[in-house]
Amino acid sequence: MYRSIQLATSSKPLQVHFAFAGEKPPKGARGAAALDAARSTPGFQAEVGECVPAGARDLVVGLGSRREFALSTLRKASSRLAKVLHRRGVIGISVHAPVGLDARHFEARVLGQAFAEALMIAAWRVDFFDGTASKRSASLKKLSISSPDAGFAKGMAVGVKVATAVNAARRMGATPPNVCTPAWMERQARKLGLGLRVRSISYAQAQRLGMGGLVNVGRGSAAKPQMIIVEYKPRTVARSCRKEHLILVGKTITFDTGGYSLKVNNGMLGMKYDKSGGTNVLGAMQAIAAMKLPMRVTAVLPAAENMVSDDSYRPDDIITMHNGVTVEVTNTDAEGRLVLADALSYACEKLKPTAIIDMATLTGGVVVALGHFSAGMFCESDGLRRRVEDASTTTGEKVWRLPLWKEHRDNMRSQHADILNSAANRGAHPIQGAAFLSYFVDPLVPWCHLDIAGVAAVDSANDQFVRGPTGFGVRTIVELVRQWSHA
After folding, report:
1. What is the distance between the alpha carbons of residues 275 and 360, in angstroms, rounded to a whole number?
2. Are 338 and 421 in contact (CB under 8 A)?
3. ∠ at Cα 253 (292, 481), nearest 5°?
4. Per-residue CA distances from 317 to 9, 330, 332, 335, 361 (Å)
5. What is the sign of the dihedral through the CA atoms of 65, 66, 69 and 71?
6. What is the pLDDT of residue 28?
7. What's the alpha-carbon Rg for the chain, to the nearest Å?
8. pLDDT for 306-317, tens place per residue?
């Protein structure tokens, strides 16, 4: 709906105010006249996201009951506001922070960030492939946002950077497979700039390094696989992070046919989103670098296209992985864990992490378990798990811990090789992927696996998202790094 949203002051901005249900504005409060005018509008109840004009240059947005207010309330209201602004053709707003909230629980900075993130995410759409036959109304070029409240404006500045990265991840996620190949993903990483160092392990190099997972999954495609490494080394590192090196690993399957275990009944439709782990990790790196967060972070993106050809890997193949573990392939559609395994092993051996977080659209089982409401989290490190959960609580991107026990690991054992890439039984299906990956992580390194299969994309539009990729995890990873580096 908007090509861009920028923190800037326009000449005659629309003044945006917030109202709580059943409350009169305090005497002398900024915008009191507009709030009084809104309250006198027939039918206005200040429900969450309810927007009403209050004069020529004022708009009042409802936040519902003050007692029930949360950051999610503000995000919902902001998302609905984005659509109202677009319909009205507004190109500049000045946002007045909600008044009367307890600053101990709702800092102005946090409110401003939540508002800007939600506004920008809701104002984005997939229109970059529109052609001459499109009937879609043209997006407005730019929306300028500002605030007279210093703390709120500071938060909006952060929110703009984070949401820009979220939408960049969504753009990559929505890019079709005839455009997005492993090499294309590498070019996107290099385009980021921001002082990030990008290098790539080629298909030939991966063969020499013994990356049997990455090599076999991608060898059937003309667009050969590669492992993309993006390094962020800030000039100044926070005292609390001087010995820390966080590694982010993102599954980057640019398209998944299922291989010889072919997806049927139109099951391939939407498989361009199988790269969402990688695109969202890359989005997080963009925001981390743009915000200049004082912590060392490196991203590893094993990128491959899982295609069918006379050179594709098969069920019954036994392949040797980067760390020497042998894998009996029982299902070529369980390919994501194979490329992730090599990335995790390489990261542990060569990059010396102090913590690893991986994101992947890994299993349909996690969708059965948790629906489209939450990512599945597997983390046996109490410290790292708390960091992920704290960041998730702040951003509203839900995660839910699932177990990973010795019995789950033993369930992946093979009679003909060390382990199977997919067990014959469907029991504990979402845990099978995590159990497999555990064989490729140094047990001394804190590790968190996030299965985002149910939350990486939405099938129908809602207040926050248009149909398509969500960029889930970008905000949580960025918030985790911010909290960690500011501890």
Report:
1. 8
2. yes
3. 20
4. 61, 8, 10, 13, 24
5. positive
6. 67
7. 24
8. 999 999 999 999
Cβ of 353: how many Cβ atoms within 10 Å? 25
CATH topology of domain 175-485: Aminopeptidase (3.40.630)
Q: Alpha helix (H) ranges present in 232-321?
A: 276-290
What string of DSSP letters covers 457-475? EESS--SS--SEE--TTHH
Distance CA 98, CA 111 (A): 9
Active-site amino acid positions: 263, 337
Question: Which tokens hold the place of 123?
Answer: 């104002």
> How many Cβ atoms from other residues are within 10 Å of residue 423's Cβ?
21
Architecture field, domain 2-160: 3-Layer(aba) Sandwich (3.40)
Beta-carbon contacts of 270 under 8 Å, excluding residues fewer than 6 positions away, are 457
d(CA 190, CA 466): 28
- How is the chain split into domains, by residue range? 2-160, 175-485
**Backbone phi, then psi, for 448, in 5-degree steps?**
-130, 125
Both tokens of residue 264? Answer: 């049927």
pLDDT at residue 408, rounded to an integer: 97
Alpha helices in 131-275 (DSSP H): 150-174, 182-191, 203-208, 212-218
Fold agreement between 2-160 and 175-485: no
Is the predicted pLDDT of residue 292 greater than 70, yes or no? yes
CA nearest neighbour of 403 among 368, 449, 340, 343: 449
What pLDDT is attached to residue 23?
86
